[in-house]
């Protein structure tokens, strides 16, 4: 499997490389002064590098480069708030790289800058983009590391990785000694792994004065981060947003799906051109909505322009996901009413994916959320009202390319009274059995006073300790057993980890391995 | 009387049909009976071979107690019954998830609840009125019997 992955990566590189060479060769005559050498790989910079550099320099974050580097130099921890579109995820790690010494005494290895991402897709796509910007081959100086795929080398100095992956690295390297700077990106999402890293890094920073931490967030909850991280300085980077007008309904809706479709039709018939983004909760609902939109608009005949509903959810095959970037359909007859693209998405389009051209956002105010109740030991995915912060993010999606409009399918009173200010961090809504195993492995024995930013309910921890004790990972005094240590090595639920570890005793490791693989992999084509 | 005669006809027809259905479904019903044997009513409590005295039932409202090994392990780590965290400032109750009608928009349930609550007040008022006229009601019943 490893070689297969590697081959895929190198295929990508070859294509990219030849494209870059072509550009370079074609323009070499006219631009003979490209004598500058890329300090990372010793090769001359390609023309493409300069083209991208010009674009990079227009990103809002570039205006504060010096200010940022100054702050980084004089502080161990730094908090950076930047709305989506400020360029923080791609540029800040490169700024850091320019300012930090990465050479080690051991010539074979270099210190690294690590930048965490909550999602695997983001880690992959951002690192590819940054490799291109730095004019290096992905997997060499710039790489990524996600579960089941490590695309880095001994030469890697900038590594994008999922937050869960950094946590796993900490299990082998508790002081994260390979890193010079750690950047926790998308901290506002408050994923389980990011929250655990918060507490862990606070400890690591005390023991490693030379390590620096940059926490990047898209929302103003950053002030809470500031209090938590020893009052670290806060830097704000403006996003690139146009004004968004917000509309509420007069009365609460009896059926939000029906209301969303009605709003799509209204926008399509009454508003000037511009694509629509509708937020719904899941695959079934989204596919259903797409069908209904096609039908409703179809019934209106050629009075109105054509529409192209595009579904978007995480289990959709990547090729289908790409459809969101296709342009709106042309008018049916020349000079007729213009067409419109209608993206119907889960909250994946809320922060992690950017779709240009969206002018209208429809927000029914719901998303699927994980909830865990330790009393009945049930973890469920429920459709629940979003937070005010989420609603704000959603409306912001309408103002990426031009002034936009956001239609909230609830009353203004509901917005103020019924939506909570922030979504509960994942750590308060999850089964923590796996997390407790990881923390134990990291040598944290006092889980009661561990410095969580938002400590989970005691009963959630009790259930985690209970199941780990039942599985034999913890003894009756709460100490980790040998079995527990082996189990913690697997990035799996403790139950499945145990199943794997003990399967040889029952002569079925082969079968159990297949079953575990099937149960833990996500379906994608 | 005429009414009753007419009414009885559909009854007859219905009975016929039911009988026919029963005959047709005879084989199926044998199977059904079999499955029925294995099906337990939802509120069934096992009584044999089980000591129900010491069984705890999980419920959203019941806190875990010291009979739970996790409870005791947490105590061993120094938990004193308050929240977790550096300053024991954490939440003490698990996050609850509200049940809701899958279609209703944000705020609709609240609006409905509000109106239902209003209705309840109205109904309560009516109940009070009824209480006051209980004797009158009795009288009415008596009158009804006479006619």
From TrEMBL, chain A:
<dbReference type="InterPro" id="IPR044756">
    <property type="entry name" value="DHX15_DEXHc"/>
</dbReference>
<dbReference type="GO" id="GO:0006397">
    <property type="term" value="P:mRNA processing"/>
</dbReference>
<keyword id="KW-0067">ATP-binding</keyword>
<dbReference type="Pfam" id="PF21010">
    <property type="entry name" value="HA2_C"/>
</dbReference>
<dbReference type="InterPro" id="IPR001650">
    <property type="entry name" value="Helicase_C-like"/>
</dbReference>
<keyword id="KW-0347">Helicase</keyword>
<protein>
    <recommendedName>
        <fullName>RNA helicase</fullName>
        <ecNumber>3.6.4.13</ecNumber>
    </recommendedName>
</protein>
<dbReference type="InterPro" id="IPR007502">
    <property type="entry name" value="Helicase-assoc_dom"/>
</dbReference>
<dbReference type="GO" id="GO:0003724">
    <property type="term" value="F:RNA helicase activity"/>
</dbReference>
<dbReference type="InterPro" id="IPR011545">
    <property type="entry name" value="DEAD/DEAH_box_helicase_dom"/>
</dbReference>
<dbReference type="GO" id="GO:0008380">
    <property type="term" value="P:RNA splicing"/>
</dbReference>
<dbReference type="GO" id="GO:0003729">
    <property type="term" value="F:mRNA binding"/>
</dbReference>
<dbReference type="GO" id="GO:0016787">
    <property type="term" value="F:hydrolase activity"/>
</dbReference>
<dbReference type="InterPro" id="IPR027417">
    <property type="entry name" value="P-loop_NTPase"/>
</dbReference>
<dbReference type="InterPro" id="IPR014001">
    <property type="entry name" value="Helicase_ATP-bd"/>
</dbReference>
<keyword id="KW-0508">mRNA splicing</keyword>
<dbReference type="Pfam" id="PF00271">
    <property type="entry name" value="Helicase_C"/>
</dbReference>
<dbReference type="GO" id="GO:0005681">
    <property type="term" value="C:spliceosomal complex"/>
</dbReference>
<comment type="similarity">
    <text>Belongs to the DEAD box helicase family. DEAH subfamily. PRP43 sub-subfamily.</text>
</comment>
<keyword id="KW-0547">Nucleotide-binding</keyword>
<dbReference type="Pfam" id="PF00270">
    <property type="entry name" value="DEAD"/>
</dbReference>
<feature type="domain" description="Helicase C-terminal">
    <location>
        <begin position="263"/>
        <end position="443"/>
    </location>
</feature>
Automatic annotation (TrEMBL), chain B:
<protein>
    <recommendedName>
        <fullName>G-patch domain-containing protein</fullName>
    </recommendedName>
</protein>
<feature type="domain" description="G-patch">
    <location>
        <begin position="66"/>
        <end position="111"/>
    </location>
</feature>
<feature type="region of interest" description="Disordered">
    <location>
        <begin position="82"/>
        <end position="103"/>
    </location>
</feature>
<dbReference type="InterPro" id="IPR000467">
    <property type="entry name" value="G_patch_dom"/>
</dbReference>
<dbReference type="GO" id="GO:0003676">
    <property type="term" value="F:nucleic acid binding"/>
</dbReference>
<feature type="region of interest" description="Disordered">
    <location>
        <begin position="1"/>
        <end position="27"/>
    </location>
</feature>
<dbReference type="Pfam" id="PF01585">
    <property type="entry name" value="G-patch"/>
</dbReference>
<feature type="compositionally biased region" description="Basic and acidic residues">
    <location>
        <begin position="1"/>
        <end position="21"/>
    </location>
</feature>
